[in-house]
Input
Amino acid sequence: MTEPSYVVTPPPRVSVGVRDSSARFPVHRIYCVGRNYAAHAREMGHDPDREPPFFFLKNPDDIVEAGTAVPYPSQTSDLHHEAELVVALGEGGSDIAPEDALSHVYGYAIGLDLTLRDVQAEAKKAARPWATAKAFAASAPIGDIVPASVLGHPASGRLTATVNGQPRQEGDLADMIWSVPEIIAHLSRWFVLAPGDLIFTGTPAGVGGLERGDVVVAEIDGIGSLEVSIR
Ligand code: MN
Output
């Protein structure tokens, strides 16, 4: 029997480590929330009124785990760090009610929504999508997932990012404009959520540019830290 030449063995699914476990969390999709901290919305030139949350996507293949260096993308001269709480879903669904949302969460991690700020600014000006600014190779560094069965569901916690040891970002999960249950509820009106989905929940103020050789450390109290070097 002749197989069409485009048929290949399926690649292994992308997965992320689970803290203190040999288990892996298989990733389905990556959703991201824009402008979820008032001070960051202001630094990007927006009024942080409580308009509905908006979303964009990255690709599962964009994930890099701790210990993997991120190549500086060739199409930018302004690669930015955005340290964020990442929510990992263990259950999916549509039209999930906010009061039911946390039961869909498998766990939490610290992640970086790496962003080509100059490319994003051009896209905004031209009213074009953000794909090239947000969903490029290695744009989604993420630390180990801490199961909610261990951690609970944190509604507060200090979130920081340093570059080469110098403070850059600081915020608290309590300052999110849209809470995790509200984000899941909104997202599930637009998308059929599935086990394995990751949600980057937005970044606090202090985003800034990275250079080759820089080391970013992002951390959320109680969830862990993630070190990423840029090469
Ligand atoms: Mn972000």
